[in-house]
Amino acid sequence: MKLVVLKFGGTSIANVSLIKKIASKVKKEVNKDYKVIVVVSAMAGVTNNLIDLVKNTSTSPPYSEYDVVLSSGEQVTSALLAIALDNLGIKARSWLGWQVPIMSDFSYGKAVIEEIKTDQVFEFLKKNQVAIISGFQGVTKENRITTLGRGGSDTSAVAIAAAFSAERCDIYTDVDGVYTTDPRIVKSAKKLDKITYEEMLELASQGAKVLQTRSVALAMKYNVILRVLSSFEDLPGTSIIKEERNMEKSEIIGIAHSLNEAKITLSGVPDKPGQAAEIFGALAKYSINVDMIVQSSSINHEATDITFTIPETDLIIAERTIKEIQNKIGFKKFITDTNVVKISVVGNAMKTQSGIAKTMFETLANNQINIHVISTSEIKISVLISSDYYEFAMRSLHTAFSLDA
Ligand code: ADP
Ligand code: ASP
Ligand code: MG
Asked: Measured from the CB, is residue 148 less than 6 Å from ligand 2?
């Protein structure tokens, strides 16, 4: 079966007139004799509104019910697109996550897809043309609905493309490809014709939300042919490709930023073995990803400060968890700062070139921007700075690393 997966994000289907336009776009693939699986997000803004509804109802909602509410946005768009396609004479129907079914684990709010049962949709596509699957959602073995984390429709699309052995997976969005940095913030950002899975993974994991990180990891694992394209214009887009041998040349590929950061400092932590294991072990129990960590040994081996960052969306649960073990750890103060942004310079130049860190820190210093925390890996250098200056910092770094178009 000649099959493609097309995914449309929230801004691409933000209202009925856009949904009708997208229906025509889907029809073009049908006219080329493709069977099409469309994966849709909720209309732009809807998921945020649903989160507010839950928050206004309770500060500690059962996570399973939270996911039922959150997943409802994708139910509406999948059916509206099916109706719009029906209007164009195309044989289509909507599929909710549990109808496919897309089986996931039980981690509500950030569920992991375990298996996609393809039989029913395949059977449907034999006699029909388009299956529209609600993105962002799964179902547990106990028949409870889950969601896959913010931006999770990208992951739904890639997982579906892998499970159905699709010829390719096209991610349609509100920009016409992957850029050297967020083109909405840095006007001189350059569009990339192609980018390797590894580089895209690093950009995404540092906050470039054009693709959800997990979707890139999945595409890499299953060799899914992946493209990012504009929903609104007929332009070439960006292909995500395997690393080619001659691509070893070292470069800075781009700059990413993440607004979803919270800095936590535990001050006055008694300096003895096992403290970090205790703190980070407690957070791991709730699957809270700790990112940057700074701890220095105290001179007199009495007390030290530990500073680390987590996703801001996990702050409430992290605070509750750590305060529960305050007596055991014996730290004095729990201090948080959410007015921070993480900026990362990404690329494999880090492996071979010294001086990248120097350029980064000098650029920030020349602009009087203070660095709170630094972390590095083979392929990126990240700094945590005040959110007051992040757009300015991104533009300055983009220029300093000669990325401007
Ligand atoms: P969708 O709703 O289609 O999933 P998203 O808002 O999740 O769209 O992702 C697209 C957005 O990603 C763009 O509007 C852009 O602001 C942002 N973005 C961040 N970094 C980049 C980058 N390097 N290249 C392109 N877009 C980026
Ligand atoms: N609607 C969900 C969100 O806003 C999933 C997605 O758009 O990918 O996070
Ligand atoms: Mg998205």
From this structure: no
147 lines ligand 2 (CB under 6 A): no
Question: How far is the C-alpha of 92 from the C-alpha of 129, rounded, in Å?
Answer: 6
What Rg, from alpha-carbon coordinates, does the chain have? 23
For residue 135 and ligand 1, the question of a CB distance below 6 A is answered with no
Q: Is 157 in the pocket of ligand 1 (CB under 6 A)?
A: no
**Mean pLDDT value of segment 97-121:** 97
Give the DSSP letter of residue 259. Answer: S
d(CA 89, ligand 1 centre) in Å: 32
Give the residue, out of 175, 213, 216, with the most ligand 1 atoms within 8 A of its beta carbon, to mutate for a pocket test: 175
CATH architecture of 262-337: 2-Layer Sandwich (3.30)
191 lines ligand 1 (CB under 6 A): no
Residue whose C-alpha is closest to residue 22's, from 174, 184, 162: 174
**377 burial class (0-12, 13-18, 19+ CB within 10 angstroms)?**
middle
Give the number of other CB atoms < 10 A from CB of residue 235. Answer: 10
CA of 122 to the centre of ligand 3 (A): 26
| Sheet-wide strand order for 373-377 | 254-258, 340-346, 380-386, 373-377
Structure token digits, residue 395: 């533009």
> Residue 296 has what pLDDT?
80
User: Does the N-terminal peptide bond of residue 101 adopt cis geometry, omega within 30 degrees of 0?
Assistant: yes
Q: Which CATH architecture has domain 3-174?
A: 3-Layer(aba) Sandwich (3.40)
Amino acid identity, position 235: L
Rounded Cα distance, 379 and 215, in Å: 19
**Nearest protein Cα to ligand 2, atom 4:** 47
286 vs 32 pLDDT, higher one: 32
d(CA 82, CA 87): 9
Kindly report the average pLDDT of the chain as a whole number. 95
pTM for this predicted structure: 0.94
Q: Which ligand is nearest to the CA of 49?
A: 2
- Give span(s): CATH 3.40.1160.10, the chain: 3-174
Q: Which residues pair with 381 in a beta bridge?
A: 345, 376
Ligand nearest to the CA of 177: 1
